[in-house]
Amino acid sequence: MAETEVKKCIIIGSGPAGYTAAIYAARAGLNPELYTGPEPGGQLTITTEVENYPGYPDGVQGPEMMEEFRKQAERFDTKVHYEMISKVDFTGPVHKLWTESGQEIHTHSVVISTGASAKWLGLPSEQKLMNQGVSACAVCDGFFFKGQEVAVVGGGDTAAEEASYLAKLCPKVHLLIRRDEMRASKIMQERVNKMENIQIHWNTTTEEILGETEVTGVRVKDTKTGETREIAVSGFFVAIGHKPNTDIFKEWLETDDSGYLIPVPGTSKTAIKGVFVSGDAADKVYRQAVTAAGTGCMAALDAERYLVEHGID
């Protein structure tokens, strides 16, 4: 039986972090192979206009930008596999990975760039009006609603941050909270309460997002009285949290209470030698394409140094 080839670098995930790691790793001669996962290009493939990524003065469509990232990675001979890694074994110095089709891969270094997925309410209208007024990122999309009324659903720190950000752009922000109190930290609650153009709707759940081709309003229900009513808004921001795509690594790597991987501070290194993390799989604070790309660069550089230190050329 032929001995399994040991790769230098495998990248798991294909958003800005994964593709940037691939570009740097390929230019360093690591012959990286990238496994895209179930959503090639990551969250940006369900984003329309991107106006805050440097180098695109006229903006760019999210899927188009990810396609350019992929082409740049492949230009330096990154091998892209449109498959998902479903299992890992980080026991020894040579790490083992398995694809969903059952192929076993051996590698000296691994860059995890699996990202995080926004949590949604699960309404059909939410999916129908995605990118037509429905968003899960105020920093990404808030500018498009400047001067318009919007709604934010959620009661935690994320919702408070989103509402506060939007309140600087919009004349009125409706904050929809399903309980009679916020889960957000005291300082975030104080920030929300100080903003006169944020109207909090307590004991309120979302029944339907209104509109045919774009958001025109939201139908909400009072959880105490059962009364329903409609609020006219142009944008609807879901801020009920994100779930990092890290389940297959939890047996091997340290995570916080929400499942985000915890790197060594100031690096992309994990507690296991040769395993590095980048992007939203470890970042629950910024969650931007540009910060993800930056950590992808860090992970590739850390992987290169690790291989050099261990005499793997």
Account of the 3D structure:
By secondary structure, the chain is of the alpha/beta class. It is built from seven helices and 19 strands. The chain has helices at 16-27, 62-75, 124-128, 138-141, 157-167, 186-194, 289-309; strands spanning 6-12, 33-35, 49-50, 60-61, 79-81, 85-89, 95-99, 104-112, 116-118, 134-135, 150-153, 173-176, 198-201, 204-210, 217-222, 228-231, 235-238, 242-244, 275-277. The strands form five sheets. Strands 1, 2, 5, 6, 7, 8 and 19 form a seven-stranded mixed sheet that branches. β1 (6-12), α1 (16-27) and β2 (33-35) form a beta-alpha-beta unit. α1 packs parallel to α7 (289-309) and α5 (157-167) packs parallel to α6 (186-194). The model has no long low-confidence stretch (mean pLDDT 94).
How is this fold's topology laid out?
Layout: E1 6-12, H1 16-27, E2 33-35, E3 49-50, E4 60-61, H2 62-75, E5 79-81, E6 85-89, E7 95-99, E8 104-112, E9 116-118, H3 124-128, E10 134-135, H4 138-141, E11 150-153, H5 157-167, E12 173-176, H6 186-194, E13 198-201, E14 204-210, E15 217-222, E16 228-231, E17 235-238, E18 242-244, E19 275-277, H7 289-309
Parallel strand pairs: 1-2, 1-8, 2-5, 8-19, 10-17, 11-12, 11-17, 12-13
Antiparallel strand pairs: 3-4, 6-7, 7-8, 9-18, 14-15, 15-16
Helix pairs in contact: 1-2, 1-7, 5-6
Short structural description:
The chain has 313 residues and is of the alpha/beta class. The chain has helices at 16-27, 62-75, 124-128, 138-141, 157-167, 186-194, 289-309; strands spanning 6-12, 33-35, 49-50, 60-61, 79-81, 85-89, 95-99, 104-112, 116-118, 134-135, 150-153, 173-176, 198-201, 204-210, 217-222, 228-231, 235-238, 242-244, 275-277. The longest helix has 21 residues, at 289-309.
